[in-house]
Design goal:
The structure holds two protein chains of two kinds. Chain A contains two helices and nine strands. Chain A is of the alpha+beta class. Chain A has two domains: 45 residues; 125 residues, Immunoglobulin-like, CATH 2.60.40.740. In chain A, strands 5-6-3-8-9 form a five-stranded antiparallel β-sheet, with no helix packed on it. Chain A has a four-stranded antiparallel β-sheet with strand order 1-2-7-4, with no helix packed on it. In chain A, β8 and β9 form a beta hairpin. In chain A, α1 packs antiparallel against α2. The longest helix of chain A has 19 residues. In chain B, α9 packs parallel to α14 and α14 packs antiparallel against α15. Chain B is elongated, with a radius of gyration of 26 Å. The chains are: A alpha+beta, B alpha/beta. At the A-B interface, β3, β4, β5 and β6 of A face α1, α2 and α3 of B.
Chain lengths: 171, 405
Amino acid sequence: MRGSPANQFICLILLLVLIPATVWGATVTRTLSTAEPGAGEVFEVSLSIEGITLGGVVETLPAGYSIVGTDHPDDRILVRDRQVAFALVNDTLITYQVMAPSSGSGDITGIWEDFLGESNGTIPASHLAVDGIETEVESTPQERPTQEAAPPFAVLAAVVALIIARWGGQR
Amino acid sequence: MKHRIILILFLPMLIAVPASAVDGIPGDANGDDVLTFSEYNAAVLSYLDAVYMGGAGNLDRNDIQDAAWVYIHRDGKPLVVTDSSGRTLTLYRPLRRVVTFSGEALETLRSVGFDMEKVVAVDKFSHEKTTFFPECLDKSDIGSIWSPDMERVVSLKPDAVFLYASISTSACDDIQRRLEASSPGIRVFRFDCFKPATYPEEIRKIAMIIDEPRQGEEFASFYESTMNWIRNGTAEIPTDERVRVYFEYWTAYKTVAAGSGYNEKIEIAGGLNPFAGESGEYPLIDPEAVIVADPQVIVKLAGQGLTVGGYARHDPEALAEIRSALLERPGWSRISAVKDGRVYVIHSDILGGAQHFIGTAYLAKWFYPDRFTDLDPRAIHQRYLSEFQGIDFDLASEGSFVYPG
């Protein structure tokens, strides 16, 4: 069956193996110290950056969440409301601290640009929910990059994974 | 809060970042022609703010990418280059849209690693050379220096145009004048790229223009190693011991004299041209004069148009026919070169333009086989194509450049 755990596992493995290998140059990934902070808790967001010598990242937090600090140099950040921009200069890791509201859930979304590689993409969204409780949140519009992070090979990998999953399901 | 304070302190700096100008490095807020680290970072934040955060910066994506390029490749400073016409030009940004009226400059750009996607238009002769310049098939054809399609050139909005420096100067000057009048900020570079005396310097300058100094040095060294091998191998040959060479242009009995590029290559290869003193660069001579001069080596140039050999065709028999016709000319059986079997045909593709070092290597080998036993012009040619031109072309089965090979 298409949605069986075995097929999902195959898809996941294929995507994990193929996509990173086929994304040339730059990648930015985000990890959270917690996805379910307590009310008013300060938690850490880490951005792992690969393949960008000179570039930029913009992160957008869910409504109610606020940026309270970062290890990035002061003259290379800009904070505006729930958004923070980082100028990248050979950086491989950026951490910033976020304060959770009393309640609320939503996604941290982000974009990156590699100015020398002349490419850009999105950072996969990270979901947050205070105390794990889901609430309705408004989303902040963000310019969509003209070029997505995943090149055609990544799409191909996904298609192959789906075909295999379907094939597996039919068996 | 800390970041609000940063934002307040920072905003005036963001606003101070100027718009992209024709001249000036994008992001150089104080206009002193140096993009400092703090100016660069301010420019980046201004750009991100404008594009993603609802701010009011005025740098677009090209601006910020150019700023990053200048910051990393040029230490944040403009690049100042003096071309072969002696004019000094200042580049505030990397080249993004290039037009070449010179096939030699186009070839040299490729030799030093230019991203050929950034060449938006080429001269009609390069456009026709689909085997050698396959990537130019889908580029605009802007005619020749004698009949340029100026409207098309201007419409393509190039940031740089390459023209010859010392040949067809009035035609090139006219194109340059018209471009600079219609497109303020355009950079017109004048390089020859076919003269042994200036080519190494031109290679390095073109590489500098495109921020590929390492690739430029590599190619210039490769070029110089071949030319120096030839020069060193012939330098000590006394004039009276030099091989007498009759070099014939495409047209029968049209030879070359002092001042012509071909004569220079004959001399570098150690040849003595009995007609060097004739008036004009390409004098037409009396057929009897060739017999009287009794050359020890005869070299015939082939390749007018794209009808015979070169990169366009693999037809050694066509070059052989040209040679046979020479041997049958009246009275030529008395010439030493004919008697000794030292009559050669060479295609202009490897002697007249940027590849002259390959043709000159063949000349040296033909003139002094004992001095150049280890010189392998074909291996040099193949390395040039594979390593520096990056084209898939096997000399063993493609093209025809010399006969006998």
